[in-house]
Design goal:
Layout (H helix, E strand, L loop, with lengths): L1 E2 L6 E9 L2 H12 L8 E9 L2 E2 L5 E2 L7 E8 L11 H18 L5 E4 L3 E4 L2 E13 L2 E11 L15 H5 L5 H22 L2 H9 L7 E6 L4 E10 L5 E5 L2 E5 L4 E3 L2
Parallel strand pairs: 2-3
Antiparallel strand pairs: 1-2, 3-6, 4-5, 6-10, 7-8, 8-9, 9-10, 11-12, 11-15, 12-13, 13-14
Helix pairs in contact: 2-4, 2-5
Length: about 260
C-alpha cells in the first residue's frame, strides 16, 4: 500500500500476526533493499506480535489488537547521521511520540525516560528499539521498533506498565494515533535535517523523566545502588548524573533506573 499524505513517501505493510516487526524489517532490508529505488520509508505494522523485542534483551508484551506495534525502516539519504551521534535518532523518535501524546491531554505529564522510553505517572506506556546499520562511519539505515500501549488494560505487575485507556478511561483509535506518530516523526526528522539538533535536543532534555529529582540508580560497574540527580544528556547521548555534587556520564548499559 502506498501513501502520499506524508512528508516523505511511505510504503505501508500490514501483517495481522507476526513474531516481531523488527525481525520482519531486518529480513525486508536483506531481501528488498535494492528494489526500493526511491528509498521510501517502509513501515511494518501488526495487530499482534508474539515475540516483540525490547531494550536490554527484554520482550515487549502486547494484547491482540489493543496496542500500536510497528517498525519503521529509514534509508538515510542525508549524511548528517554519523555513528558517533547516533543518539540523535533516539531524540527524533522520542520527541515525536511525546508530542503526539502531549496533544491528547495537557493535564497529564508524559515524560521521555532516557534514552527512549515514554512514561506517564511513573509507569511505562511506550518503548522504542533502534537498530542502526553503518557504512563508512555514517548511519545508512535505521530500523525503529515502536510499541505503544493504547487500549490494553491488564498488565503483569512486574512490568510497571500502563496504557492510554487505563489513564484516561477512554477507548482510542489506534489507526489515528499511528498516522499521527508517523507524521510527527517525519516532521521532527525534517526539522533536524534543516535546522540541526540544538532545538530538538532542548525539547528532549526539558522533558526527561526524573530530571532534577533525587532518585535511585543501580551502577553496574560498581554493583551498587546510589542516589543521583539527572541533570542532562550530553551531545554523545550519555546521561549526565549528579552524585554527591559531582557530574558523571553513563552509557545505557552502565546504569539501571531504580526510581
Amino acid at each position: 500500500m502506498f501513501l502520499k499524505k506524508f512528508i516523505f513517501p511511505v510504503n505501508l505493510i500490514y501483517v495481522e500476526k507476526i513474531n516481531s516487526t523488527n525481525e520482519y524489517a531486518k529480513k525486508y532490508c536483506l531481501n528488498y533493499f535494492h528494489h526500493n529505488k526511491n528509498k521510501n520509508w517502509i513501515i511494518i505494522s501488526s495487530g499482534y506480535q508474539t515475540n516483540g523485542l525490547g531494550t536490554r534483551g527484554n520482550f515487549w508484551y502486547s494484547t491482540n489488537n489493543k496496542n500500536l506495534i510497528c517498525s519503521i525502516i529509514i534509508f538515510h539519504t542525508n549524511k548528517n547521521f554519523y555513528i558517533k551521534r547516533k543518539y540523535i535518532i533516539n531524540v527524533i523518535i522520542s520527541n515525536a511520540i511525546h508530542k503526539v501524546l502531549k496533544k491528547i491531554s495537557n493535564k497529564k505529564f508524559f515524560w521521555i525516560k532516557w534514552p527512549n522510553d515514554i512514561f506517564i505517572e511513573n509507569k511505562k506506556i511506550g518503548g522504542i528499539l533502534i537498530e542502526n546499520y553503518v557504512f563508512f562511519n555514517t548511519i545508512n539505515t535505521s530500523i525503529i521498533g515502536i510499541g505503544l500501549n493504547i487500549n490494553q488494560i491488564e498488565f503483569d505487575d512486574k512490568l510497571n506498565a500502563t496504557s492510554l485507556k487505563k489513564i484516561f478511561k477512554n477507548n482510542f483509535k489506534i489507526k489515528n494515533i499511528f498516522f499521527d506518530i508517523i507524521f510527527s516523526i517525519q516532521t521532527e526528522y525534517l526539522y533536524f535535517i534543516k535546522y540541526g539538533e540544538k532545538l530538538i535536543r532542548k525539547y528532549y532534555i526539558k522533558n526527561l523523566y526524573l530530571k532534577n529529582k533525587k532518585s535511585l540508580f543501580y551502577i553496574c560497574k560498581i554493583k551498587n545502588i546510589i542516589y543521583g540527580i539527572i541533570r542532562s544528556v550530553n551531545k554523545q547521548g550519555l546521561l549526565i548524573l549528579e552524585i554527591k555534587n559531582k557530574l558523571y556520564f553513563f552509557h545505557q548499559k552502565d546504569i539501571i533506573f531504580i526510581f
